[in-house]
Write a structure and sequence with these properties.
- With 220 residues, the chain is an alpha/beta fold.
- It is built from 10 helices and 6 strands; from the N terminus they run βαααααβαβααβαββα.
- The protein is elongated and about 60 Å long.
- Bound molecules: magnesium ion (MG).
């Protein structure tokens, strides 16, 4: 093994937990500005919009205001964004992550990020989390041109001129991290964290945190 690829959300930091907190803070900020609805009403409407549009849709709060019939939405959208961002500055990686990454780097492994989503949003997380310096490169679906799939991983392998047998993918989601990486011929480690922590896995190893990673990778 030479190269280790990591997913970000619920692999390097508690993303599910953060998203809930950030959304609640956004809603509270809107209500505090005099929106005229209760927090729980607004929050459940927001969740419906997120479910319908997906979490990467950039205009959740605009749509929320429209559905609530807000005539002059700027104040509330601004409040929501401020509430959301104030939560973001407080995010931290899972407690063992920095130590494990720096150990792996010291042992000579090359570390990468392989993730779905928008490049700007994913870099934003890595920088706020203080994790950017650990990685040789960051591969985001937006730049690669396809969501995580066997093709996504093959494109990365081609870029790096590497054989899949020298690579391992570490992630929390079976169908996005484990299945496609395996299909591309890479070894896989499933992290049992966040809202997808249950369910069967075809990964080579399953872990509850990243601490056992070094010993496992030696065995692969
Ligand atoms: Mg994930």
């Amino acid at each position: 093994m030479k190269r280790i690829f990591f997913d970000i959300d619920d692999t390097l930091f508690p993303s599910s937990q953060f998203a809930e907190k950030a959304r609640k803070n956004a809603v509270r900020a809107m209500v505090e500005q005099g929106l005229g609805y209760r927090e729980d009403e607004v929050y459940s409407k927001l969740l419906k919009i997120i479910r319908k549009k997906g979490s990467n849709y950039p205009r959740h709060f605009d749509l929320l205001c429209r559905e609530l019939g807000v005539k002059r939405p700027a104040r509330y959208i601004a409040a929501a964004i401020a509430g959301y961002h104030s939560t973001k500055t407080g995010i931290l990686p899972y407690p063992e992550v920095k130590k494990v990454l720096s150990l792996l780097k010291k042992k000579g492994y090359k570390l990468y990020v392989a993730t779905n989503g928008s490049s700007l949003k994913q870099w934003d997380k890595l920088i706020i989390l203080g994790l950017a310096p650990y990685f040789e490169d960051v591969f985001v679906s937006e730049e690669i041109g396809s969501e995580k799939s066997a093709a996504f991983f093959r494109k990365i392998l081609k870029k790096l001129r590497e054989r899949p047998g020298n690579c391992v993918m570490v992630g929390d989601r079976e169908e996005k991290d484990i299945f496609p990486a395996k299909k591309a011929g890479m070894a896989t480690v499933r992290v049992l964290r966040g809202k997808y922590r249950s369910g069967k896995s075809a990964a080579d190893f399953r872990v509850r945190n990243l601490k056992p990673l070094r010993d496992m990778i030696k065995k692969l």
